[in-house]
Amino acid sequence: MDKEYERKCIELAYLIFPDVDETLDDLEIRYKERNLKEGAAVTRYAPSPTGFLHTGSLFTSLVDMKIAEQTGGVFYLRVEDTDQKREVAGSVEALTKELREFGLVPQEGVISVETEIGDYGPYTQSKRAEIYKVCAKYLVEKGLAYPCFCTPEMIAKTRESQEANKVLPGYYGVYAKCRNISIDESIKRVKDGERFILRFRSQGSHLRKTSFVDAVRGKIEIAENDQDVVLIKADGLPTYHFAHVVDDHFMRTTHVVRGEEWIPSTPIHLELFNAMGFEVPIYVHVPLLLVKDGNSKRKLSKRKDKEAAVSYFLKAGYPTDSVMEYLYTLVNSDYEIWRKKNKELPREKFDIKLNKMSSSGSLLDIMKLNDISREYISKMTSKEVLDNVLAWSKKYDEELYNILNRDLDYSLKIFGLERDNAIKIRKDIIKWEDVRDNFFYFFNDLYEDSIHTKGYQFDYITDPETTRLNEELTKTILEKYLTIYNEDDDKDTWFVNIKALASELGFCTDMKFYKQNKDKYVGSISDFASVIRVAITNKKNTPDIHSIMQLIGKGEVIKRLENAIKSI
Questions:
Q1: Fewest beta carbons less than 10 Å away: which of 2, 265, 267, 510?
Q2: How far apart are the first and last CA of the chain?
Q3: How far apart (Å, rounded) are the C-alpha atoms in residues 493 and 488?
Q4: Which residues, 6 or more positions from 223, have their beta carbon under 8 angstroms from its beta carbon?
């Protein structure tokens, strides 16, 4: 760059940024290198406040926090709100709150809507406009950025022409109309008050290759950037590309963790880092979360998949620990081997390995999550289950919360069935919203609602084509059982009496023998007991029916049996 051109670039920079007195050196002094041990990673979660916390972002944030934690570094949160047209009110509050609920608490940055902590702020991009201007001014002075006066209509017309001629679309080379206007014309048009945006003057060519080493995928070769990307928009705020480079440099980020969909944009960022004279951080492109769609897989979609929103798991009542346990299995496949060997250790003791992450997408397998969650809840005591259900229902199911609170001792006994000190623990709760459907029959109002809305679930109603338990036999079973029911019978005595009655009515009491001789009986002892179970609970699958009757009491048992008989 000759002296005259350099002088005019400086003149243009001062015309565009007349109030910017700081320099890059000033920013380097203000945001000095962090005083951390060698190898310590500085990572960030940088959401846009445009909606809910995405499950993919929760996954990425977990990787962010673990990298920082394992190396004695820093995990911070930065809000990228430069696209203010898309901003959704309340997003920042929701994002930070949901991260906290899953135990992902940044040490620095935006902690809540009102609170930022740390020495490298502001941590909200809309508050950093002056910093971006200093950096943009530097690029103009170096001849690496220029004002673009093209209107949106002109840009659209250029793109239409490119598409018609089947050439690479974008603002570059001969298609970058304002790139090659003289510096004198640029100065004049700015002085005349003509509206403009600021673009980067790329030195690259898509016909050449560049490369970088990704922490997950190793060396990646990719076409150079040749697009004159927008740096500063008409509203004075930066684009994502420019803000990423400026913020991650001056916040001293060492590892940029983001989804693999950003790999094609990396050449832009590499060129911008080099143009600014900044060190390039380590890129960590984590796999996308995928879901099954028929016989194929596709990207987890905000529009199509309820599981894309982290709030879904909270509202459904998945314990946050079980969700995080599942996400660890997606981060590293060897986590499950580690977990089997270290059943009692907290998962935080597991060190993730970036080079062991999948590079081809990770399947969000809800069935596997359900298995993990079911197992996790099965290890809880009845008191822990009750406390968790109360905490969840207070937020998401007020009616259930009030019902459980009517008699906490009674509620505790319900959750203790086949749980506390049981040889075989029942595993019928996957998430807290399952409690209502699994245990409604313990509460008279919910039980009666079930009868009113669904009717009785006797086989002759639900499976009339295959069952031999017709109306007459069902009614007979209930009438006969009512005559022998005794609330004082212990479980063994009760079962002896049940077997005797079943045998009297033509049911086989030996399941092994019944399977070989089904034609000789009207049904098995299990079929017989199912009639009583449905009358008492209106469900075909419950904990031990004797224990249920002991809990709900003699009066309610008799009432339910009598009402069931009347209904037939």
A1: 2
A2: 96
A3: 9
A4: 206, 207, 208, 209, 210, 267
